[in-house]
Structures are given as structure tokens and as C-alpha cells.
Amino acid sequence: MRLRPRKRKGVMRLLLTFIRYRLTAMVAASALAGYLLHPWNPGASGAVVLTSGVFLLAAGGSALNQVQERTTDALMARTRHRPLPAGLLSPRAGLAVSLALFASALALLLTTGPVPTVLGVFAIVWYNGVYTPLKKITPWALLPGALCGALPPMLGWTAAGGALFDYRIVLLAGIFFLWQIPHFWLLARRCRCDYRRAGLPTVARLFTPRQARRITFAWILALAVGTCWFLAIGPLRQDAAKFLCATSGGWAIVCAAAGRRRKTAVSWELLLGRPEPFIAIFVTALLLDGLLSVGAPLLLAMLRAASIG
């Protein structure tokens, strides 16, 4: 039986919500950035396979996470409208979707090489098998959990043929790691009533507001320093990308200083409380550098071939 157009749109919207497509797309973009930053100018076909594989892998991890946390999600205003707690999708169907996504992702990642495949499998095992259960036990679960967000750029870099522990990709992964800590701490601060209702431990219960401000300031300052360091010794090749990277680093420095001076977390929340500001500018810089460095020569080669033909 065929689904009506309106019904198909409803199913598609449900699936996109279920996989948290915006977050999943950001993960895939960070993997693509690591791939394009490699100086060997990898091919476009490899980029498509890698990005698709990482997107499906992250989608599967997000879907499985919602199956695991469906009871907790139902208690929080921020998450109670997700497909499982809202009753729009059954746990069994959600598990089936996640397994199908994992299988598709693995089939694609296997073509990129053994190291990216192992990194991808490790990221999912760590995210769903370690970080997700730890969230209910300790407020420090975010520290090991942030490792999952640092792995996609390394996955892309190794898929392009780079060494796993090359200082350039390690530095880039470190920036993604540093960003996640204050970002999710501030998220927990904003949604502290939700976390309390769901029984999830948060760092806010361990520190006074003044101590929390100092810790957040230290993390954001480390993020700013790491960004500037990456700009100085990293693999960026294009001036436009360097300008955007410098903008993100300068923004972090200014906001950290402003938050410290005003003794408030407002400016920090503007910077890191949502995924868009800092990380969007930084990832855009990475992608722009890769596309200008790889895409422009490829386009010129195609135009020359067409003119010769």
C-alpha cells in the first residue's frame, strides 16, 4: 500500500526529528572538515562516502540514545515531545531504525579503511555504552562523553590517509573536546529544573555559582587559546578560512573576558549555550578552507579538460 504524499511527509518529518538531524549534520560536517583539511587533496567521491557514513552512524547513535533514555526524556520539558516519549514511535521500531542506520553506516565506512571504521564503531560503543549510562550516575559523565564529539574530525582525517596521532588533527579534535564541556554545562544550567525532575546529577550541585563561573571561564579561555594555537600551527591554507577561525577565537576571548568582568554567565551562554555560534563559525572556517583548497583546483582541472576536449 502506497503512502499518501501528506503521510509520507509526516513519516519523513518524524524520522528527521528522531535522528536529531541538525546535530547529526553537524557531526558529519566535522568529519568532512577533517577529511578536506588533509593536504593530500582527497577525492570528491571519498568525501561523499565518508560524510554519508558518518551521518548515518551519528543518526543511529542518536536514535539508540533516545531508545535508552525514553523514560528520562518523558520527564523533561525539553525532550518530552520527542517521538518515543510522545508515543509517536514504539521502542521496538526505534531500535529497528537505529540498527538499520548502523548497518548502512558500517557498509559505507568499511570502504574508507580500517582505521576510520574502528574509530566509528568505538565512538558509538563509547557514546551509547559508556556515556549514556554514566549520565544517570555522575555529573562528570560529560568528560568521557566529550570524547565522542572529538572523534569525527579524526575519522575524516584518517579516511583521507592521515596519521591518527598527527599533531594537527589532535589539536583540532582537542578544540571540539574543549567546546563541548562548557556548552553542555551551560545547557544543564539553563535546564536545571528539567535535570532535577529527571533525577540527573549536574555539576551545578557540586559548586557554588561563583565557582561554576570560574570553571566555565577557565574552559572557555582554554578553548580560545586552543583556537588561536590551531590558527597559528594548524593546516588552514586559505586566508578567508583563517579570518573566520580568528573570528571564532576572538569571539571566545571577548566573551570569556566579558563574562569574567560582569560576573555573569550571560555572555558565555550567548557563545556556547547553543550549538550555533562558536562551533558553526569554526566548522565553516574548516569547510571553507577545504573546499577552496580542494574544490577550486578540481574545478579548474575540469574546465581545462573541457576546453581541451
Could you explain the architecture of this structure?
With 309 residues, the chain is mainly α. It has one domain (7-308): Tetracycline Repressor, domain 2 (Orthogonal Bundle). It is built from 13 helices and no strands. It has helices spanning 5-18, 21-36, 44-68, 70-74, 91-109, 114-134, 142-159, 167-190, 192-198, 209-233, 239-262, 266-272, 277-308. Helix 10 packs antiparallel against helix 11. The longest helix is centred in the C-terminal third of the chain and has 32 residues, at 277-308. The chain is globular, with a radius of gyration of 21 Å.
What composes the largest sheet? none
Distance between the termini: 49 Å
What is the residue-mean pLDDT, rounded to a whole number? 83
DSSP, total strands: 0
Judging from the principal axes of the Cα atoms, what is the shape? globular
Please work out how many helical segments DSSP would assign: 13
What Rg, in angstroms, do the CA atoms define? 21 Å
CATH class: Mainly Alpha
- Briefly note the structural class of the backbone: mainly alpha
**Weakly predicted, low-confidence segments:** none
Q: Name the CATH homologous superfamily.
A: UbiA prenyltransferase
